[in-house]
Description:
Blueprint: H1 2-7, E1 10-11, E2 16-17, E3 22-24, E4 29-31, E5 36-37, E6 42-44, E7 51-53, E8 58-59, E9 64-66, E10 68-70, E11 81-83, E12 86-88, E13 93-94, E14 99-100, E15 105-106, E16 111-112, E17 117-118, E18 126-129, E19 134-138, H2 142-158
Parallel strand pairs: 1-4, 2-5, 3-6, 4-7, 5-8, 6-9, 7-12, 8-13, 9-14, 12-15, 13-16, 14-17, 16-18
Antiparallel strand pairs: 10-11, 18-19
Amino acid sequence: MLRWRIRLAHVGEGAMICPGVKIGFPKHVRVGAGTVIAGGVSCHAASQGFITIGERCAIAAYTKIITPTHDPAVLPVASVGINRSVTIGDDVWIGTAVLILPGVNIGSDAIVAAGAVVTRDVPPDTLVAGVPARIIKALPSREERFANGIKLKEQRREH
Ligand SMILES: CC(C)(COP(=O)(O)OP(=O)(O)OC[C@H]1O[C@@H](n2cnc3c(N)ncnc32)[C@H](O)[C@@H]1OP(=O)(O)O)[C@@H](O)C(=O)NCCC(=O)NCCS
């Protein structure tokens, strides 16, 4: 973790970046407190693109987050590089093998189902899935989900 603390723009307290995570342009990547990034995740920021991940998020294995792109109206394709920053709110769960495309903002408390390709912003408190990702359902309120978490912890302590 120490090497990421030195290299990244910000790593919040208790954040965990597992072995096997790849980060391009680490000085353009911020990871909030308590967030866990699993092995095999790739955060591909670039010279003018930033990736901001909020607090207490879980980013599952093999997910890719990228900021660089090109303008489809311009040839040759690689002549103009564009960077669009990606922002992920607090308490977001990104499932395994998700692809988050440049310019996407994912609202707090959202869930992105495994295998989704996220091309548009995701509103807070929603579950999205598929290619391209679409809203599957609205999630219970943040308060209700945190209360469920506390209940579950208490039940586990009793058994
Ligand atoms: C999204 C997820 C959490 C399930 O949430 P859920 O609220 O229990 O959702 P349901 O299983 O009731 O599915 C609701 C609908 O979404 C669809 N769906 C669920 N997961 C999907 C996925 N990954 N991709 C596409 N559609 C999906 C279901 O088929 C269902 O569609 P239907 O209503 O037409 O039958 C789960 O499918 C998932 O993707 N988990 C991620 C697991 C993972 O990545 N783990 C890594 C370690 S953390």
